[in-house]
Amino acid sequence: MGQPTHARNGRDDADWWRDAVLYQVYVRSFADGDGDGTGDLAGVRSRLPYLAELGVDALWFSPWYLSPMKDGGYDVADYRAIDPAFGTLAEAEKLIAEARELGIRTIVDIVPNHVSDQHPWFRAARAAAPGAPERELFHFRPGRGEHGELPPNDWTSEFGGPAWTRLPDGEWYLHLFAPEQPDVNWAHPAVRREHEDILRFWFERGVAGVRIDSAALLVKDPDLPDFTEGQDPHPYVDRDDLHDVYRSWRRLADEYGGVFVGEVWLPDSERFARYLRPDELHSAFNFAFMSCPWDADRLRTSIDETLAEHAPVGAPATWVLCNHDITRTVTRYGRADTGFDFATKAFGTPTDLALGTRRARAAALLSLALPGAVYVYQGEELGLPEADIPVDRIQDPMHFRSGGTDPGRDGCRVPLPWTADAPHAGFGSHGEPWLPQPADWASYAVDRQADDPDSMLSLYRRAIRLRPVFGDAPLTWLPAPDGVLAFTRAEGTCCVVNLGAEPYELPDHSRLLLASGPLDAAGRLPEDTAVWLRA
What we know:
The chain is α/β, with parallel strands linked by helices. It has helices at residues 41-46, 48-54, 89-101, 120-127, 189-203, 242-256, 269-274, 287-290, 296-310, 329-332, 353-369, 397-401, 446-449, 456-466, and strands at 21-25, 58-61, 65-66, 78-82, 105-110, 140-141, 164-166, 172-174, 209-212, 259-262, 283-284, 318-320, 373-377, 476-477, 484-488, 493-498, 511-515, 529-534. The radius of gyration is 23 Å and the shape is globular.
């Protein structure tokens, strides 16, 4: 049914990931095949032709494993079973094969820092006595204080509050995220063996790669000391021993031709690049670009720094505008503060969706023109805004752990609209979706956008189809005034983005290949608009 597009630049098929367009599927919200209100693998399989027409090279699936869903599936109880809400292992295998027939590879997600509190290991550890071998697979410690009533150290959870929970027998266990997500002990050989077995399990089922959640947090200082700001090395972030884990994983992946992409949040570019050495991870998400404000100077700096930190290790950059944790692009770019920071999320932040949509369209062309791989979160190609979830329907633990001040991440996880006139905008045939859809959701439906040449969906389809015109050449900046980004890659092809307040006179060109919006009456590039040009 056609070949994958990754050979488009003459590159060896084994290097497909270096310039791929990868689409993130949050299964729970993608498409509901059985009508129970929850997205599932049957729904994804039914929409594979849509994804093939979009032109993506691979699908990255957020966790689809057996889970109590206390953190959207990132609390895994069994890596070798599909959660019944999504389907079965047999269905997953069919999906992987059917997607591959359409030229689309599959990336699965693993969460090696922690498991669910319903995982067999933790259930056994909780039932065991203090000091038992079952507890050595996790981080159990006695408490401090006269009666052990205080946590073993002062670490805080990524979701807010203490990173420790006490059991009735008096011992405490570590969880850098929710209490239902106990951290495993990576100093224990059984933990390393189990995760390598999990990798083999999925590679043998045909997946092309693995995305690694919270990839820099696995290894802890064995003394579990209190945290001191500026402490080096950090007691649980970016520990040197972690690289031994990933070198072992890389040897395993190379047996299958598999690839890794890491979720690595690190401010130090040199230490970040260490994860991308030839014997470790293949690539890592670019959070600096994703959280960067809509500002020409800051975007250019982010692009330059990203390319510079990848160059020494020969790894491709990745470009991401949004994911299942981040405020939707059209909403963020319509705000006074167009950057992203978890610490500043708040209810009721005003946004100008028309402005945000115009900027998101331009940002799509910018990201798809840059050298490296691009990740597109489901619904970005539809221009979906962040939804305001009624407080009584919020499910994200980040909201509850914040004491109700953080709106959480559910707003970017609302089920997709497929058919404007169908119940629930075509997400599913019967059941109320697990998260409520806004009243205007149908206006963003795929069937409304598919035949509209000016829609966000049509823009993404054209951009992904035309993206090979940039080849695999490096980026070269072109002279441009303040507020304008202009660069070329393949000879004779350039991208221009105007973030300034004044229209910009385009450089000489023979053809306008694609524009995120109309030019003005004088043929100039308006504010918040991008074009691809042929000289």
